[in-house]
Amino acid sequence: MIQLNNIYICHMFKASDKKVRLGILGGGQLGRMLIQEAMNHTLSIHVMDPDEQAPCAEFATEFVQGSLTDFNSVYQFGKQVDLLTIEIENVSVEALEQLEAEGLQVFPQPSVLRMIKDKGRQKLFYKEHQIPTAEFFLIDNKEALLEHAIHFPCMQKLRTGGYDGRGVTKIASLLDVNSAFDAPSVLEKLIDFETEIAVIAARNLSGEIAIYPAVEMKFNASENLVEFLFSPAAVTPEIEKRAQEIAKLLVEKTGIVGLLAVEFFVTKSGEVLVNEMAPRPHNSGHQTIEGNYTSQYAQHLRAILNLPLGSSSLIQPSVMINLLGEPGYEGTAVYEGREEILKIEGVYLHLYGKKKTKPFRKMGHVTVLHPSMEKAKETAIFVKNNLKVIAD
User: How many angstroms separate the first and last alpha carbons of the chain?
Assistant: First the structure.
């Protein structure tokens, strides 16, 4: 374990500063990619995660195994760093609020995190600020679904704890009520959408804002996980402009410092409706590592260090493929076809360092760059068909 003396944090960190101790709550792949970018700064990276084999464990300056939802664990971890951020929302907000009250810089701010981690609070925030979103109802248990039967079909989303497609279920008719979640939820009217897009926005402490071009997401229907991501999105200039305007408005209204990833439904009539948002680096921004002048990870660090934000412009069109564990395999991960896909120009492989695979677990991603989006898509399909995560 490495112990450093407390360092006073100014609003702007300078290249001449001693190593600032940056704390990250969550040691998954997002934290791992954040560490890779942080190596370009004068930072000492401290990570806490409940899994001793988390992807960040072998790269952090100091790794602490501990519960992210336990007040004392998060509080004590925060007392050892100079600046604290997250890579997952499911953390003790109460501990972050106490740390902030004692003077620690915590980004995103605990007030923003408290609102976003509860999908019900999110929806009420949209309503309060006239942000376009699907019609919704807040319910306490599955019996309350019966009061809204007239609105079926709907999507039921757990207010807290859901991620990566979990905590979401379709309520098509009264026949589905028995298998519904029996917990506080958002009941959202089903949207007849054309496509799903996402926009990442960044804001630093000085109020400077950067907005990334919209990307288009294609999901695995059975697991509700993103399989392909296309950058830029194949949408009209009007839809692109509207999505970026809404993302900018959300950054301004929340006052967030750091990244805000905003997911949208684009309806068949051309409406742009907010689905949900995440206050951290996001799956919809992995392709920015190679595809944009400033990656989402570099931008997040710039924002929380209050450095000038970088250009979010595209370098080339790109396709991102989520590398998921193959159905029927569980155990020590083996990457079949890696050599074959790495022979192709413009293909970039990112493995997350997870030792064990299981069906549909996120094990890595591949980004394909090409001046032609159609050619990039062809290559991405080849990668999808030939790179498999199996078990030995």
Answer: 34
Coil/strand/helix, residue 300: helix
User: To the nearest whole number, what is the mean pLDDT of the chain?
Assistant: 93
Distances (CA, A) of 16 to 13, 222, 271, 310, 312: 8, 51, 48, 20, 26
Q: Are residues 215 and 324 in the same domain?
A: yes
Name the CA dihedral angle for 93, 95, 101, 105, rounded to a multiple of 10 degrees.
-80
Domain that holds residue 213: 193-391
| 277 and 182 co-located in one domain | no
Domain total of the chain: 3
Strands laid side by side in the 168-171 sheet = 136-139, 185-189, 154-158, 168-171
CATH number, domain of 343, equals: 3.30.470.20
**DSSP per-residue codes, 40-65:** TSSEEEEEEES-TT-TTTTTSSEEEE
Residues for the chain: how many in total? Answer: 392
Which among 112, 102, 154, 54 has a CA at the least distance from the CA of 257? 112
Question: For residues 262 and 381, what is the distance between their CA atoms, to the nearest angstrom?
Answer: 26
- Shared domain for 233 and 249, answered yes or no, is yes
**What CA–CA distance (Å, rounded) separates 141 from 62?**
42
Tell whether 4 is covered by a domain: no
Whole-prediction pTM value?
0.92
pLDDT digit string, tens, across residues 344-390: 999 999 999 999 999 999 999 999 999 999 999 999 999 999 999 99
What Rg value do the Cα atoms of the chain yield, rounded? 21
Same domain, 375 and 295: yes
One domain, residues 298 and 199: yes
Q: Computed from CA positions of residues 219, 220, 223, 226, in that sequence, does the dihedral angle turn out positive or negative?
A: negative
